[in-house]
Amino acid sequence: MIVTVTPNPSLDRTYEVPSLARGEVLRATVDRVDPGGKGVNVSRAVEAAGHRTVALLPLGGPEGVLLARLLVQQGIEVAGVEISGRTRVNISVAEPDGTLTKINAAGPQISVAESEALLESVRTHSAGACWIACCGSLPRGLAPSWYAELVSRAHRAGAKVALDTSGPSLLAALRQCPEVVKPNAEELAEAVGRPLATIGDAVKAADELRTMGARAVLASLGADGQLLVDDTGTYYGHAEVDTVRSNVGAGDASLAGFLVAGGAGEAALASAVAHGAAAVQLPGSVMPAPTDLKPSAVLTTADVPLDRLLKEPA
C-alpha cells in the first residue's frame, strides 16, 4: 500500500483550445475536471497501475466534497481531514502543440489544529504502508518545517518516505533523511543555489542533496530524461515521445512508477521514465494505465552522459 499526503489538493479543470489568444473569447474543444494535487496524482497513478493506495488530504467546502467523490469513483481510498477553508480550484489551458497555461489558486488557510490533525493522520496511516509519498506545495498556515515533522513522524512509525516538494520545505525536510526526494531541474538548481547546464551538473547537485540527508534523488529533467542517484549507483533514463499532449501530472506519474517498482535501482528508474512518458501523451492530468506504457521505448544506463547539455537549462 502506498499512502499519499497532499497538503494543498485541488480540483483541476482543463480546457483544450485550438489556440490561446489573450483578450479573446475562446471555445474549448475539451473540458474536463480531475482530482488534483501532486500526491493525489500519485495515488491516481498507483491505482491505475493496480496497487492499493490511500489519499490523505485536507478537504473543505463543496469543492472538497467533489474531490473526495471523484477519488472514490476512481477506486482510491480517501482519508480526509475536514478543514474550515475551501479546497482550491486550478485551471489549465492546453493547446494542440503541447503548450500549457496554468492558473493555480493559493489554497485555504490551515489552522494549527488542522495541521496537527493532518500529521496525526499520517502517523496512524503509516502502519502497513510500503511508502508515504508527501507531495506538493504547502498551503497557508503550514510552516516550511511541516514536511520535516511529517517525515520524522512517519519514520517513527516505521514507514519509508518519498518527498516531492521544493524550496525551504525541501531543505528543512532533508535533515530528517527521507528515503527519496524527487525534484525537477529547476527545484534541483534552487536547492543547491546554482544553475545547471549539463546532466553532469544535475548529478553533482543530486549528490549534494544526498550529502544534506536525502538517501536517494530521483530528478526529472523534462525533455532531457530522468536521473537516479541512490545507494546502488547513478543512472540516467529517457524515452522518445512522439507527441506531448499535456505535461500536467507527468512528474507525479513518474514518482508512482518509481515506487510501485520498488523505489530503488535502475529497474525502478525505467518504470518512472515509462510512466512519465506515457502521462505526457494523455489529456489533462489523466494518469497512465499499464496498457499506456511502452517499456521498449525506455533506455536506461549507468554510463551517464555527464557532458550532455540540457535542452532546458535550469
UniProtKB/TrEMBL annotation:
Domain Carbohydrate kinase PfkB: residue ranges: 17-291
Pfam families per UniProt: PfkB
Source species, domain of life: Bacteria
Alphabetic keyword roster: ATP-binding, Kinase, Nucleotide-binding, Transferase
Principal EC category: transferase
GO molecular function: 1-phosphofructokinase activity; ATP binding
Gene3D superfamilies hit by this protein: 3.40.1190.20
InterPro entries the record matches: 1-PFruKinase, PfkB_dom, Ribokinase-like, Tagatose/fructose_Pkinase
EC number: 2.7.1.56
Cellular component terms per the entry's GO annotation: cytosol
GO annotation terms (biological process): carbohydrate catabolic process; small molecule metabolic process
Presence of the UniProt keyword Kinase in the record: yes
Keyword Methyltransferase tagged: no
NCBIfam families reported for this sequence: 1-PFK (TIGR03168), pfkB (TIGR03828)
Entry's family note: Belongs to the carbohydrate kinase PfkB family.
Name recorded for this polypeptide: 1-phosphofructokinase
Organism: Actinacidiphila oryziradicis
